[in-house]
Amino acid sequence: MEGIIARCIVEIMGAPKEFIEQKLKEHVDKLRDDELKILKERYEEPEQKDKMFSQFVELEIHFKNLRELLDFCIDSMPSTVEILKPEEMVMDMAVFEDFINDFQTKLHQTDMILKTLTAQKSVLDKNAINVLHNFVLFACKQKPHTMAELSKVTGIAQKELEPFVDGLVEKGGLKKEGEAYVRNG
Fold it and tell me: Quick check: helix, strand or coil at residue 56?
């Protein structure tokens, strides 16, 4: 059998326990659907870490070539890859250059996705803060609210809400009268 045989560990974290167990099995099934030849698979029992669960599967996979191994590594992000066979590999420089260029392309694609998601998250964060500010301003325009009352109507813990409300006071949108906040103007 030519190609590369590797032992790989793929991990998943999430909650609830049943969800991660199902998702890890679905991922391995997708690998099979992608026509990877899985020679062995061994699932460890999920372990609880705080409120999350972690589980991993050890897979022994036959890859047709380096490109297939690279695709697997980029898509599945295994925590470890141990090459079992071959023990040595001789590679034509043109094949190696193709491999490196393909790897670079995948890194650039991943980097672009990350940058796009980071920019989208920034916009969403800004919009969420604006919505929260508007909600607090609207609530305090209707009637004065204490921090505890604002916490209750927003569903945000007092400690987490305080910096936002303090920011509105600093900007002049709210003023504090005793323990209550009222819309300024």
Answer: strand
Residue 6 to residue 63: CA distance in whole angstroms: 8
Question: What's the token pair of residue 174?
Answer: 């709210």
Written as tens digits, the pLDDT of the chain (185 aa) is 689 999 999 999 999 999 999 999 999 999 999 889 999 999 999 999 889 999 999 999 999 988 889 889 888 999 999 999 999 888 889 888 888 898 898 889 989 999 999 999 999 999 999 999 999 999 999 999 999 999 999 999 999 999 999 999 999 999 999 999 999 87
Contacts of 151 (CB under 8 A, 6+ apart): 157, 158, 161
Its CATH class, for the domain covering 4-89, is alpha beta
Domain made up of 116-183: CATH architecture: Orthogonal Bundle (1.10)
Query: Minimal CA–CA distance to 129: which of 173, 184, 177?
Result: 173
